[in-house]
Amino acid sequence: MQNYMKNNRLFWEGIFIIVIIILLGCVNLYSALITPYGTVDSLFYKHLLWLLIGGLLAFLFHFLKPIDIENFSAIFYILCCVLLVGVLIIGKKVNGAQRWIGIGSFSFQPSEFTKLALIFFMAKIFKQMPVVETGYKLNQLAVPLTIVIIPLLLILKQPDLGTAIIIFSIAFFTILLIGVNIKLLIKFFVSFIIFSPLFYHFLKDYQKKRFIAFLMPEADPRGAGYHTIQAKIAVSTGGMFGKGFLKGTQSKLGYIPEKHTDFVFSVYAEEWGFFGVFVLILLYFYLIYWMFKVTRNINDRFLFLSASGIIFLFSLHFIINIAMVSGLFPVVGIPLPLMSYGGTALIVYLVSLSFMLKLSREY
Amino acid sequence: MKKFYVVLDSIPQLEKRLFLFMKFLSIFVLLLIGYYWFLQILRHNYYLELSEKNRIRNIRITAPRGVIRDRYGVIIASSAPSFVLSIVKEEVVNKDALIKDLAHIFNKNPEEIKALYEAKERVTPRFYPITLYENLKRDEVVKIEALKWKLKGVKIDYKSERSYPYNDFCSHLIGYVSQVSSKDIERLKNRIFSSKVGKAGIENVFEDYLKGFDGVTRVEVDAYGRKKKVLYKLDPIAGGSLKLTIDWELQEVAEKALGDKNGAVVAISAKTGEVLAFVSHPNFDPNLFVKGFDREEWEKIINNPFYPLQNKVIQGAYPPASTFKLITAIAGLEEGIIDESTTFYCAGKKRVGNRDFRCWRESGHGRVNIHKALVESCDVFFYELGLKLGPDKIAKYARMFGLGEKTNIGLPGELSGNVPDTLWKKKKYKQSWYDGDTLPYAIGQGYLTVTPLQLALAYAAFANGGTLLKPIIVKEIETNDGKIIQEQIPTVRRDVKISSKTLNIIRKALIGVVNESGGTGYAAKIPDILVAGKTGTAQVKSFKERKKQTGFLNDHAWFVGFAPAYDPEIVVCAFVMHGGHGGGVAAPIVREVIDKFYKKDRVVNAKLHEE
């Protein structure tokens, strides 16, 4: 009972920090979605609706037994792959990329679900694999690599470089976590360096432009470098304490593209300044640290690996997005968890957090 | 009971690795915080500036340039509204269709418009409207207004633009305005640039008065270039206006009299030094500088062998020929070398050393005194006189009359001409002065050069009894609401001391030039007005060379006249390049100008013209 109480504290700690970030996200999204006429864009209410749906799903998810998750992970994974194929066939095309499946007025992104499905499925696969003292070799990794590569290719085809980078990185860190043969790791890095020009060759033109713009944003300030420069201006003019809520000029005058999705953090940084940025980064770090605290108590390999995958998911999104907004990372479509608008992603984050909350009580 | 969770040994190892990940994450978090500190605190001011550039547009309102009027108020340079066609890129629906429509309106090739559009687009900052055409014609404006529903994104604005209603009228004096160059930007600090500045003539010299102060509207714009709100507005202040000493009608007559001939005509008020007419030909249309030249027009100007952009009144120095005899005669009389009865014999030529110096009349003038020598412009008389005077005495009198020095009319590029003497020759050619140099000098040729304005002023100094005046071109400078802030009053440069006896002798001779039979300036005679003057026919130097290069064989023709002879009010100097004889070519020009000066309805006409 005493033990239960202790873990209950960890649970409420998690709830507390998650709620704070969600509230901050809502406040900031309100500002990002304010129209020139002083009203707020309907997307804000949609965000609230998504929060409700996501919260409900997260609540329901809480009642799933961990073993059910493990058992369902394969089906979940296959379902996601089918949906990814479906996207390529019947998906909605927005801005040249085919990423969404529409249901009525709502649309969702199967690639977001795929992140979670892959985390669970990889955890299941690795749980079943025997532990190798010297780390896994390539032939032993054939199955897990295959299950990563299939959705990865499907997502690259959409194309959605951001999600592909996230999935690849989650898989990469998971494999590092379970232990990989050091020689294989070296081989991987060497071939990565050798083949990266080839990889660059396969990028779409707009992706190449963004990459060049990342290296030299000032080279084409009106074109590819525009996102980065305008976001940097927004962030920088925030100064120490920011311009104040609803007072950001860069976002209000429309200089920031994607200000409610991938670049929502620049709106925040402009209005709340370095002070706000510092607080939010610490909050995120605290959230991840909380997840780590939860994870290290777990003594089940599947659950441990799943929880780690979710840590990677959040960490990568958080670090890459904040780096991207300030021009430290090329512009790729990677949203900021709980802050950016995006229904499917929000559901995935809430469900993941629900999973972590569940584990915080169980262990 | 089934065991749910299999505990594996590897968990602690996983935990260790996950902890390592957390360490890495912490480092990244610290780096990010550090970078945001850099960006938001250290680079704050830099980006703040970029942000202002983004958000705030300063839209210039060009101040109307001050008007330039003649002495009676006729507007010579005005500020007229000019229509500007610009395109707001963000509002264009179909660019190709728009270009096609514009091509139709302007009667041009769509490719041409497209090329222009793209060229202008490149130089236009993001979200600024692209200025496609300036100075639209009225019918073009009407057409565009009529098709406005179709031409999405096309905007017609108007701005104040310099306009010269009489085109090439008085162009060398007025000068012109045109687009600022990088050189001007250095010169004119603290100005908002993009507009036009005075580049030559009055426009250049009085830039600061004429320019006024541009206004500005500071607006906040959104990312699509749409104005959100006006932050601040500063109305432009119109430039001050100038009243010139130029007499519009006299100027017109002088220009007409010179016609297509190349050269200069300058008329000045004999007692005040006010410039009444200021003509240099070939001239140019300053409006072309305002709107910008096309290639053909520009080539026409720069390929003209007579340099249309050269202001021949002050920027050209030429041998004054026999008009200079005035100076030699005064020198002779004042120095006591001759008197009215001294005579020399002219046999048509004078031999000095082994060279014959000809008189223009080959048969000779016989025995001549000073009067006859001036009236008939006998060269031999002045050869003899010159030899007696020597070059330094001639130079002394020439300088007294302001030759060889700038008149300080206040226009850029004025030449001082050349008054040679022995010292000058030693310096310049490292040779001593020969008698062979003195002979042409005495009749205004050789090394001697003067500008038409200098010559006119020298004659004015003689005509008014010895007052060398500073030429005045601007009578009044007014503020934009008509207050006179500066008035030019006659300025005496120097008093030339000439005895009344000398004045009398020469005045009579100059009257004789125009009025006596046998006088070389007979063509300047006007029935009711007593005109005095002197002709000049300058042999073009290095005759053979000229012939080879350009084929200009003719002599330069001069005539300087003043009237009325005994109480002169006006002095007119006409110079015709390669015109032929002064008496035949230049004297009639002077006559017409003086004639017009005394037409009674002159002022009334000018006033009417203004209406």
Task: Report on the architecture of this protein.
The complex is a heterodimer of chains A (363) and B (611). Chain A has 363 residues and is mainly alpha-helical. Chain A has 13 helices and 3 strands; from the N terminus they run αααβββαααααααααα. Chain A has helices at residues 2-32, 42-61, 66-90, 110-128, 142-157, 161-178, 182-202, 205-215, 226-237, 249-252, 264-296, 301-325, 343-362; strands at 92-94, 97-103, 106-108. Chain A has a 3-stranded antiparallel β-sheet, covered by helices on one side. The two termini of chain A are 12 Å apart. Chain B is elongated. In chain B, a hairpin with a 5-residue loop joins strand 18 (474-478) and strand 19 (484-487). Chain B folds into 2 domains: 58-116 and 129-244, Penicillin-binding protein 2a (Domain 2), CATH 3.90.1310; 248-610, 3-Layer(aba) Sandwich (Beta-lactamase), CATH 3.40.710. Mean pLDDT of chain B is 85; it is low at 1-8 and 542-546. By secondary structure, chain B is α+β, with helices and mostly antiparallel strands. The interface between A and B is large, with 55 and 44 residues.
Main sheet: strands, sense, barrel of chain A: 3 strands, antiparallel
The low-pLDDT segments of chain B are 1-8, 542-546
Structural class of chain A: mainly alpha
What is the CA-based Rg of chain B, rounded? 35 Å
Q: What best-fitting shape of chain B do the alpha-carbon axes yield? A: elongated
The sequence of SSEs of chain A as H and E is HHHEEEHHHHHHHHHH
For this structure, the CATH topology of the largest domain in chain B is Beta-lactamase
What is the subunit organization of this protein?
A: heterodimer
Number of helices of chain A: 13
Distance between the termini of chain B: 115 Å
> What number of structural domains do the residues of chain B give?
2
